[in-house]
C-alpha cells in the first residue's frame, strides 16, 4: 500500500514510517524542509514539500499527524492562531489533494487517519471519558474541534475517516517524558498542583499500532480515543515515574506557580480527563502496554 504521512518526521511519525516500511508499504512524507528531515526517516521514504507534489502517484491511505507543539510556547493570541493554523492547514492540504485527484479522475485514498488530542474534551474532572462524552468548551477543545472539522469534507468524497484523539505519548527520545526526566532523575520531580487531575497516556508503539489498526480495519470510522486503558492521576504518574527511576518525588509545583509562569497554557498540566479507549477496545484492539508500570518498565 502507498501511504502518505504528514508529520512524518515527528516523534510519532518517525516510528510510524519505520513500521510502515518494515511491513512492506511505500511511504510518502510531507515536510516543509525535506532535506532537513532526511536523516530522521528511512532511506526509502519519498519526502516532498507538499501533499500536491504526490499528485502523480496517488496514495492509498493518508495519515495526518502534522501540527506545531501545543506546549512549545506560552499561549499568546498569536501562538494560539499558529497552533490552530498549523493543524488546519495540513489537514486542508490533504483534502485539497483528494479534490484534485477526484477532478482528474484519479483513484482516491481509501482511508484517512487524522490526528486530534485529548484536549478535545477539555477539563473533565474525575468523570470517565469515552468518545461520547460532551466536551468542556475551552481553548484546547476549540483547537481540536477545528482540526477535526477540517478533515470532515473528505468523507463526502467517499474516503473513510478515522479521528484519533491521543493522550500523552511516552517513549525514549522525545514526547512528554523528554521534559520530565531531567528533574526526576535529579530527585527534583513532583506532582503538579493537587495532583488529582488525570493524565491519559499511551506508549508510542501502541499509538503506532492503533494507527495501523484503523488503517487496516475497513469498518472503522469516526472518533477514537488514542490512550491506554488505565489512565492515572498526575500524583500517581509522578510516584510511578519516580519509583522506576529509584528517586524521590517530593517537590510538588504549586498551581499558582504554574499559572504565573505559563498563563492559560498551565491548564495542560493542571486539568485533565479520565479518557478511556472505549471504541478501540470494542473493535478488538489489544494494547501491548496497558498499564503505566508496564510502559515505564519497557521505556526506562
From TrEMBL:
Annotated InterPro entries: DUF1731, Epimerase_deHydtase, NAD(P)-bd_dom_sf, SDR39U1
Taxonomic superkingdom: Bacteria
Pfam families reported for this sequence: DUF1731, Epimerase
DUF1731 domain location: 253-299
NAD-dependent epimerase/dehydratase domain mapped to chain residues: 3-217
Family: Belongs to the NAD(P)-dependent epimerase/dehydratase family. SDR39U1 subfamily.
UniProt-recorded name of the protein: TIGR01777 family protein
Species this protein is from: Vreelandella glaciei
